[in-house]
Write a structure and sequence with these properties.
GO molecular function: nucleic acid binding
Protein name: DUF1016 domain-containing protein
Strand content: 15-25%
Largest sheet: 7 strands, mixed
CATH architecture of the largest domain: 3-Layer(aba) Sandwich
Organism: Thermodesulfatator indicus (strain DSM 15286 / JCM 11887 / CIR29812)
Low-confidence stretches: 317-322
CATH class of the largest domain: Alpha Beta
Helix content: 40-55%
Number of strands: 7
Number of helices: 17
Mean pLDDT: 87
Number of domains: 2
CATH topology of the largest domain: Trna Endonuclease, Chain: A, domain 1
């Protein structure tokens, strides 16, 4: 076996061992940063040898055996992980970016991003969000699988006209479309009050889906206006925007009158609840579905900042799975047999 190894393998292995030893000493001071840089260096070196000398995957298998024999107390040198290192170095050729950005998140975060996000721009966005919000790996997986990158900032709003910059940009970025409430396990024919109750019962999951900065104030919040009683479905306070956020839930399609009602609610909240230091309250109308043109007309002349988003109770199936499922007609034929 030894004779069949490619030229330069022994020197290459010795060099890797020395790098690993040096990294272990530094790791006492900065474990994660040194680990990420070490893995990137190993991946880069493997990549270079494969490109220049045509090393195949079998050499990686042998390399894994030798490194684990030399460092039996370390778990990161399996053949699979060495291949991740190679993919990591290939995806991020800029060492400075690895040092300054990627070393701020764990190796498991980096592997997750490599496996689940193929578009480089989208991947960098998730990296930045993970660093900014301190997402755990499980939260990162949830955000990727729910398609957060493609949903964030997509709601139809009038913020550019009703809020000053930069609050209008921050508020727009706060909203998603659609919101995904698959954690509720509900059917599509649910009533508004039941949807509200279930969201409150799962408030931690609901806050995760809403995004960073939302603080729950209450449900069915009472307002008295002109001697009459009114109730807000859900009331939040956004810590970053420094304003109240009123959320109204609608289990059907958006209707123009919803915008007028929300405009009224926001006027009341600004008058009765808003502190002088708070910024203007924002309204979010969550509907099962919406017609983009109708929403834009409904919001055009409203004076209060309002956004309209749809929601889903189940996560959309991938196309390859969806195409393999039987149709209703096929199921009916099978049941009749």
């Amino acid at each position: 076996m030894e004779n069949r190894l490619p030229t330069g393998y022994a020197e290459f292995l010795a060099d890797l061992k020395e790098r690993i030893r040096r990294a272990r000493v530094k790791a006492a001071l900065s474990v994660n940063r040194e680990l990420i840089l070490l893995y990137w260096e190993i991946g880069r070196m493997i990549l270079e040898r494969q490109r220049k000398e045509g090393w195949g995957s079998k050499v990686i298998d042998r390399l894994a055996q030798d490194l684990r024999r030399e460092f039996p107390d370390l778990k990161g040198f399996s053949a699979r992980n060495l291949k991740y290192m190679r993919a990591f170095a290939e995806a991020y050729p800029d060492k400075k970016f690895v040092q300054e950005v990627l070393a701020q998140i764990t190796w498991y975060h980096n592997i997750t991003l490599l496996e689940k996000v193929k578009d480089p721009t989208e991947r960098i966005w998730y990296i930045q969000q993970t660093i900014e919000h301190g997402w755990s790996r499980n939260v990162l997986v949830h955000q990727i699988e729910s398609g957060l990158y493609h949903r964030k900032g997509k709601a139809i709003t009038n913020f550019d006209r009703t809020l000053p910059a930069p609050q209008s940009d921050l508020a727009q970025e706060m909203l998603k479309d659609p919101y995904v409430f698959d954690f509720l396990g509900l059917t599509e024919d649910i009533r508004e009050r039941e949807l509200e109750k279930q969201l409150i019962a799962r408030i931690r999951d609901f806050l995760l889906e809403l995004g960073v900065g939302f603080a729950f104030v209450g449900s069915q919040v009472h307002l008295e206006v002109g001697g009459e009683d009114f109730y807000l479905d859900l009331l939040f306070y956004h810590l970053k925007l420094r304003c109240y956020v009123v959320i109204e839930l609608k289990t059907g399609e958006f209707k123009p009158e919803y915008a007028g009602k929300m405009n009224f609610y926001l006027s009341a909240v600004d008058d009765l609840l808003r502190h002088p230091d708070d910024r203007p309250s924002i309204g979010i109308i969550l509907c099962k579905s919406k017609n983009k043109v109708i929403v834009e007309y409904a919001l055009r002349d409203t004076t209060k900042p309002i956004g309209v988003s749809s929601y889903r109770l189940t996560r959309a199936l991938p196309e390859e799975i969806k195409s393999s499922l039987p149709s209703v007609e096929e199921l009916e034929r099978e049941l009749k047999k």
